[in-house]
């Protein structure tokens, strides 16, 4: 039996509960409020008597606690069974855990064994792979360092004088070069077998290089001697002998020269010097003989009776030899029209100048293909450009009928750009070419100053048509062009000095001055020479300088001339300059042409007025005085009342010039004019008609003054305008 607590104890517990509730007060939820309302509704005294209600609740709680305790004590066996089951479960779990530990140890052992097996398998694979790589590397090494015995035999005993032997030696040399330059790992290079094989290849390379150099050295010397002997035995011909055969014989050795350049550069350089030394002597001899023959042709004076035939024959010979060139010139060189200058200068001078034009064109046309062919050969044979494929050369030679043909690039990227090395080698092959050509230029300039104009045009055309402006030939031509331009400037300066130094003759009439004639000849020939040339601007500058000096010197000569009136000298020479410039139609001299025309007209009027004062001199003086009186303010009708200008004085003066006397005076003027003017310029009729117009103008002026100052006097001149026209016409016809 369970004892219940007393009332005091309950009171204490209630107080504690109240304190606890106060400390942990929480608001009731809606469900709790609902349950509380239901509980209070079941107990009617809950509101009226709270203590009784609380006591009832306590009793009910005690009953419930007791019931719970009895329920727990009744289920003790079940609890014991539950504990036993829990103990059994723990033991089973421990057993399973032991088995799992055992299995885990077994799996760990298997894992360790698998890892060991995996490592062993990786090592086996690595070993097999290394063995395979080593086998491949050794196989590759053997292939790289192995040369067939026939190639070694070709290097040792191959015939370098036959095409077949050259081909075998070239193939063997390339294979040897490939073995020497084989891409071998540095570690493999330390192998004794590799070192021994490399030493063996080096010995073969040295021996073959010496044998090849010896053979080519003898071949270069032999070719130079053979070409020199051939040149001495041949009949002199006005052309440079081609070296195509020598180039063709040396071309098969081009690949071997490349091999020698890569394997023994010093030996290659020495061979290049041997080639240039032997060929330079030959080229110097050929060029000297060629230019000397050109000088001889210029020194031969053509026969006047056979001038046309000889010139035509020489022209045909020159054109025929030019057509035999194996290399087509780059760009067409414009030929000068000889017919357009045939009417100026002496026949001999024109023939020699035309011949010189053909010769200078022939010289340049011969030098260009020879130099370009040699340059092209050197670039390919000595591999100066470094990027020209021998296979492409061979392919082009197979496609062409000509065994030797200058290399024509098939694509823009193959186009060669000449460098300093190419120009250096060409300079060694042609050491005296520039000096020889400049000497010929000086010689031609001494022969005839006009030659500098022909050379300026021709050389400019060749320089402008050059495909490679940086090549040896282009630079050499450009240097000569500078000298030619200086010679041309010197020629113009000499012309100007000759004009300034012209001396006036004191014993003969002046006429057309010599330097005026010379300018006409110079201008006509210069226009024919420079027609279509881009150097015409230089000629225009020369024109301006010459015309300025000519105009100045015409004035000087006119002032110093003692036999010819100044007006006549000025009139005739400026008329000649005006006619010349009008015919030439040179744009840069248009202003000078207009100036010449104006000066000519001014001097024509001046000369006419000066002569016309003589036949009616007293009449002219009388009316000049009348005009002066009117100008001073005297009325025209009052002039006649002055004693000096009375009607009687006027009649007296008019009687002194009857018709016969006037005609005689005009005839004297015509004779004077005929004496002053030169027949060459043919200005007599022009001057005579000008005098006629001026004389009639004076007569009409005198008649007007008579009508103004002496009206109703009935005074008239003894001749009329029609009489004057008849006089002028009759005098001109009689002479």
Automatic annotation (TrEMBL):
GO terms for cellular component: exocyst; plasma membrane. InterPro entries: Sec3_C, Sec3_CC. PANTHER family: EXOCYST COMPLEX COMPONENT 1 ISOFORM X1 (PTHR16092:SF14), SEC3/SYNTAXIN-RELATED (PTHR16092). The keyword Transport applies. One of its GO terms (biological process) is exocytosis. Residues 51-181 form the Exocyst complex component Sec3 coiled-coil domain. Residues 413-712 form the Exocyst complex component Sec3 C-terminal domain. One of its GO terms (molecular function) is phosphatidylinositol-4,5-bisphosphate binding. It comes from the Eukaryota. It comes from Magallana gigas. This is Exocyst complex component 1. Belongs to the SEC3 family. Keywords: Coiled coil, Exocytosis, Transport.
């Amino acid at each position: 039996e369970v004892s219940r607590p007393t009332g005091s104890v309950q009171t204490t517990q209630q107080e504690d509960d109240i304190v606890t509730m106060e400390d942990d007060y929480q608001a009731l939820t809606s469900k709790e409020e609902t349950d509380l309302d239901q509980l209070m509704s079941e107990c009617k005294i809950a509101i009226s008597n709270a203590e009784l209600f609380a006591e009832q609740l306590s009793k009910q709680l005690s009953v419930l606690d007791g019931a719970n305790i009895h329920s727990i004590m009744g289920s003790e066996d079940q609890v014991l069974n539950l504990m036993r089951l829990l103990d059994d479960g723990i033991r089973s779990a421990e057993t399973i855990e032991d088995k799992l530990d055992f299995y885990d140890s077994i799996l760990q052992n298997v894992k360790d064994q698998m890892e060991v097996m995996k490592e062993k398998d990786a090592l086996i694979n690595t070993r097999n792979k290394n063995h395979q790589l080593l086998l491949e590397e050794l196989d590759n090494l053997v292939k790289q360092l192995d040369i067939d015995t026939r190639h070694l035999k070709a290097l040792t005993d191959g015939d370098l004088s036959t095409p077949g032997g050259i081909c075998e030696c070239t193939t063997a040399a390339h294979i040897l070069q490939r073995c020497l330059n084989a891409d071998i790992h540095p570690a493999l290079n330390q192998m004794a077998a590799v070192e021994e094989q490399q030493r063996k290849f080096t010995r073969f390379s040295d021996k073959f290089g010496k044998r090849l150099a010896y053979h080519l050295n003898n071949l270069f010397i032999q070719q130079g001697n053979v070409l020199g002997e051939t040149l001495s035995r041949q009949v002199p011909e006005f052309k440079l002998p081609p070296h195509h055969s020598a180039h063709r014989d040396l071309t098969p050795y081009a690949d071997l020269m490349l091999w020698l350049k890569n394997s023994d550069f010093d030996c290659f350089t020495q061979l290049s010097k041997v080639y240039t030394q032997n060929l330079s002597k030959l080229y110097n001899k050929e060029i000297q003989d060629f230019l000397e023959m050109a000088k001889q042709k210029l020194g031969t004076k053509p026969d006047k009776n056979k001038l046309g035939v000889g010139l035509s024959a020489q022209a045909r010979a020159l054109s025929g030899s030019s057509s035999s060139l194996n290399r087509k010139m780059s760009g067409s060189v414009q030929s000068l029209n000889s017919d357009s200058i045939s009417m100026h200068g002496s026949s001999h001078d024109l023939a020699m100048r035309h011949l010189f034009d053909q010769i200078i064109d022939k010289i340049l046309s011969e030098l260009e293909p020879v130099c370009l062919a040699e340059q092209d050969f050197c670039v390919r044979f000595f591999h100066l450009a470094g990027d020209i494929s021998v296979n492409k050369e061979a392919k082009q030679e197979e496609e062409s009928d000509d065994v030797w043909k200058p290399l024509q690039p098939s694509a823009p990227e193959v186009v060669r750009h000449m460098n300093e090395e190419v120009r250096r080698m060409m300079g060694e092959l042609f050491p005296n070419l520039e000096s020889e050509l400049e000497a010929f230029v000086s010689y031609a300039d001494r022969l005839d100053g006009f030659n500098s104009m022909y050379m300026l045009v021709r050389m400019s055309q060749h320089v402008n048509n050059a495909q490679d402006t940086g090549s040896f030939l282009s630079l050499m031509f450009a240097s000569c062009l500078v000298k030619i331009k200086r010679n041309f400037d010197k020629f113009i300066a000499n012309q100007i000095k000759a004009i300034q130094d012209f001396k006036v003759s004191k014993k003969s009439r002046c006429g057309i001055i010599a330097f005026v004639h010379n300018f006409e000849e110079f201008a006509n020939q210069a226009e024919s020479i420079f027609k279509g040339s881009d150097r015409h601007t230089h000629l225009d500058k020369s024109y301006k300088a010459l015309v300025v000096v000519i105009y100045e010197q015409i004035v000087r000569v006119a002032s110093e001339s003692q036999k010819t009136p100044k007006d006549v000298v000025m009139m005739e020479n400026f008329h000649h300059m005006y006619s010349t410039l009008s015919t030439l139609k040179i744009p840069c001299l248009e202003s000078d042409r207009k100036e010449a025309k104006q000066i000519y007209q001014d001097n024509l009027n001046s000369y006419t007025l000066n002569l016309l004062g003589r036949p009616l001199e007293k009449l002219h003086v009388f009316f000049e005085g009348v005009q002066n009186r009117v100008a001073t303010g005297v009325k025209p009708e009052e002039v006649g009342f002055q004693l000096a200008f009375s009607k009687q004085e006027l009649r007296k003066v008019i009687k002194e010039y009857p018709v016969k006397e006037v005609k005689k005076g005009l005839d004297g003027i015509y004779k004077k004019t005929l004496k002053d003017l030169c027949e060459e310029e043919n200005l007599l009729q022009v001057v005579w008609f000008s005098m006629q117009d001026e004389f009639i103008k004076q007569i009409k002026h005198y008649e007007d003054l008579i009508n103004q100052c002496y009206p109703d006097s009935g005074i008239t001149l003894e001749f009329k305008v029609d009489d004057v026209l008849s006089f002028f016409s009759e005098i001109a016809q009689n002479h």
